[in-house]
Specification:
Structural class: mainly beta
Distance between the termini: 10 Å
Number of helices: 5
Strand content: 35-45%
C-alpha cells in the first residue's frame, strides 16, 4: 500500500490490517453470516415461522452494514419470502465466528404487513449523533413476485437505546415508477439534518430537510444517464472535504462517468449547472463507501478487488490504490469504518443468491476488516 493511502486512513483515525503475510487479526475478526444462525425467542417461535413459510433460511442475505462500538447492524432485505426480520445485529466481540443475528431493535418492529414496522430495509446510515437512519422501501419479495406492503419510509433509531425517534413517510416524494436504493445523512453547518436518497428509476435524488420536516426531489441532468442501457443502480457516497464542505458523489452502475454535487446546492433544490462531471470510469464500478472523510472505496463490476480513491486527487486510474486483493467467490457490497478503528468489509455471493444457485445453507456472507493480501 502506498504511504498516501495510509495517511488518508490515519487522518480519519482508521487503518487497514497490515499488508503483510501475518494476517492474525483477520481470522479473529472474521464473521460468517447466514440465515441458519438467528436468535429466536424460543424454539416454538422458530417452528411456527418455519411451518408457515415466514422463515426460509436460504432466502436471508445481509447486504448493508453500519458499525456502532462493538456491534454490527445489518440490513437483510426481504428480496424473497421467509425473511423473519429485515434489520439485525451481531456482536463483534463474539468468539463464535458463525455470527448469531438478532432482530434490531426488537421483534415487534419487524412484522411484515404492519406499516408501523419495517418491511424491507435496503440501506442504513449511522450519523455522528448515534442515530441510525433506515431506508425501508415497503416492497417485499422483490426478486420473486414483488408485493407493496406499505409506503416507503425512513426510520430513525437511537442505537444507544433502540428507540425509534422519527419516522419519515416518503410516499409524497415518490411515484409508482420510483426505485429507492441508497441513502446518506448530512449535517449542515447550522446543525440542520438532511437526508439524500437515490431514486434510480426516475433519475432523481430525494432531499429531505429533517429539521424543517419537508422534502423535495432534485431531477439530475440527462447527461447522468448517457450511455446507460437502463437506469440500473444509482450509487451515492458522501465525502467530507478538509474544509468541512460535503460533496455527494453519484453514478449509475452502467454509466461511463462519475458525477458530484456540493450538498449546499442540493439543499437549495437545484441541479442545473451545479453537477460536476468528475470524469470517465475505466469500466462499470460499484461504490462501496467512504472513510467518513475524503477516501472513497469501490470495486469494478464482477471483480472482488477493492480500491481506494482520494477524492482530493484527479479521478484517474493512477490514483486508484488497491487495498484488498481478490479473495474467494464473494463480492463486497459495503466498506465502513468501525470497531477497533478499522475499515470493515461486508461481502457475499450475492450473484448466486439472485440466480437462486445457493445451497441449503443459503448465501455466503462475511464481515471482516479490510485487508490487503500478501505481495
Amino acid at each position: 500500500m502506498t504511504s498516501l493511502s495510509w495517511l488518508l486512513l490515519a487522518a480519519a483515525g482508521l487503518s487497514l490490517v497490515a499488508a503483510s503475510c501475518d494476517k492474525s487479526l483477520l481470522p479473529e475478526l472474521t464473521f460468517t453470516l447466514n440465515g441458519a444462525n438467528l436468535a429466536w425467542p424460543c424454539t416454538s417461535t422458530r417452528n411456527i415461522y418455519a411451518s408457515s413459510g415466514r422463515y426460509v433460511s436460504r432466502n436471508i442475505i445481509a447486504t448493508r452494514v453500519q458499525i456502532f462500538k462493538d456491534e454490527a447492524i445489518v440490513a437483510t432485505p426481504r428480496y424473497k419470502p421467509g425473511v423473519p426480520f429485515t434489520l439485525g445485529k451481531l456482536s463483534l466481540k463474539s468468539k463464535d465466528h458463525q455470527a448469531v443475528l438478532s432482530p434490531f431493535p426488537c421483534w415487534s418492529l419487524q412484522e411484515e404487513g404492519n406499516c408501523q414496522a419495517l418491511q424491507s430495509v435496503v440501506d442504513l446510515f449511522l450519523d455522528p449523533q448515534d442515530i441510525l437512519w433506515v431506508l425501508d422501501v415497503g416492497i417485499v419479495n422483490t426478486l420473486d413476485q414483488p408485493i407493496r406492503r406499505c409506503p416507503p419510509k425512513i426510520v430513525a433509531i437511537n442505537v444507544k437505546t433502540g428507540k425509534v425517534v422519527k419516522v419519515i413517510d416518503l410516499s409524497g416524494l415518490v411515484c409508482s415508477a420510483s426505485r429507492l436504493q441508497y441513502l446518506v445523512v448530512d449535517y449542515a453547518e447550522d446543525g440542520r439534518v438532511f437526508i439524500y436518497v437515490s431514486d434510480a428509476a426516475t433519475r432523481a435524488i430525494i432531499v429531505f430537510d429533517v429539521t424543517a420536516g419537508r422534502g423535495f426531489r432534485v431531477v439530475l441532468p440527462k447527461a447522468v444517464t448517457d450511455g446507460c442501457l437502463r437506469r440500473d443502480v444509482l450509487y451515492l457516497a458522501l465525502i467530507r472535504k478538509p474544509c468541512g464542505t460535503t460533496v455527494l458523489y453519484f453514478t449509475y452502475l452502467s454509466s461511463g462517468r462519475l458525477f458530484s454535487i456540493k450538498t449546499a446546492h442540493l439543499r437549495r433544490g437545484s441541479a442545473r449547472g451545479t453537477v460536476v462531471d468528475v470524469g470517465p470510469k475505466p469500466t462499470n464500478l460499484v461504490i462501496l463507501g467512504t472513510d467518513g472523510g475524503t477516501a472513497l472505496f469501490f470495486r469494478y463490476k464482477g471483480d472482488s478487488e477493492i480500491y481506494l480513491w482520494n477524492t482530493e486527487t484527479c479521478f484517474k486510474e493512477e490514483n486508484f490504490m488497491l487495498v484488498q486483493q481478490a479473495g474467494e467467490c464473494r463480492l463486497a457490497t459495503q466498506v465502513v469504518p468501525g470497531y477497533k478503528r478499522l475499515m470493515w468489509v461486508l461481502e457475499s455471493n450475492f450473484q448466486d443468491y439472485i440466480q437462486n444457485t445457493v445451497g441449503c445453507a443459503g448465501a455466503s456472507v462475511s464481515l471482516h476488516p479490510l485487508v490487503k493480501g500478501c505481495e
